[in-house]
Amino acid sequence: MIYASKPSVQLPVSGPGAASMAILAAVGAALAALLRTPVPFFVALPIGIYLMFAMKVANQWERVALLRLGHYQGLRGPGLFFIIPVVDSLSKYVDQRVRVTDVRAESALSKDTVPVNVDAIIFWVVWNAEKSILEVEDFNEAIALSAQTALRESIGRHELAQMITERETLGHELQRILDEKTNPWGITVEIRDVKIPAALEDAMSRQAQAERERQARIILGQAETEISKKFEEASLVYQNNPTALHLRAMNMLYEAIKERGSMIIVPSSAVETMGLGGSLALSALRQNQP
Fold it and tell me: Which range of residues forms the domain containing residue 20?
């Protein structure tokens, strides 16, 4: 489905031309009544009819091609210009303002054969009116159909996961494809947004959550691996140095019982091995001495 801006409709008779016709007809009629002869009226009437069809007006943002006996003579506008009736003809007026086209690719297959519906908003402008008139029959429809074709082509080159996570990449590729087609026509295209359906957005959020959980588990596993390596290195040090092992054990006991009200149960074998009995007795005697 394509939504495109409509071109402006130009009347065969311009406002200044109609006004000139009315003024000359009125002046001719007044002179004919004053001079009591119809000659002034019949002289002014053909001039008014000629000016009515010869005077044309283009708005500030419009350009039009002048054809004389079918041959291109150049662009006219903006403002007032004249043509030779019957001999000259005008093309469609070209609007050089920025225009918007909403393109939708329904049930387009992605690279992994998943049907998706994707919308794109395209802003485009005619920067060379001469090329757009002489090389394209209807550039409004050409832009819309080219954008829809390019959108389907870009979807077919990406997998569903890529379209969800790399939306900007999809937009850049779509703009590149359109620029290759439309630049020779004197038209520049800009992609402002590529809209993903709500169902795909839900899939995107679930995928992002799963990715975060995977990263958390990877980080936890790496931490466990590093800790186990450190324990392995410490065991080698303690194996060759029993004194260091005793000091580490005593430090662990100290850290455990330094808080008031804490209590720890130590096996008797550990107390005898580390010689904690004598150390604890000496500490108790020192505390009891006045």
Answer: 2-95
Instruction: Go through the chain and tell me how many residues it has.
Output: 290
User: Is beta strand 99-109 parallel, antiparallel or unpaired with respect to 115-126?
Assistant: antiparallel
Q: How many domains does the chain have?
A: 3
Q: What is the pTM of this model?
A: 0.57
Cis peptide before 78 (omega within 30 of 0): yes
Distance CA 219, CA 164 (A): 25
**Nearest-5° Cα angle at 173, 168 to 175:** 95
Q: Are 28 and 42 in contact (CB under 8 A)?
A: yes
Domain check: are 240 and 263 in the same one?
Answer: yes
pLDDT of residue 270: 58
Residues 85 and 103 in one domain: no
Give the tokens for residue 88.
């000259």
What are 186-241's pLDDT values in tens digits?
767 666 656 666 666 676 677 777 888 888 889 988 888 888 888 777 777 777 77
178 within 8 A of 192, measured Cβ to Cβ: no
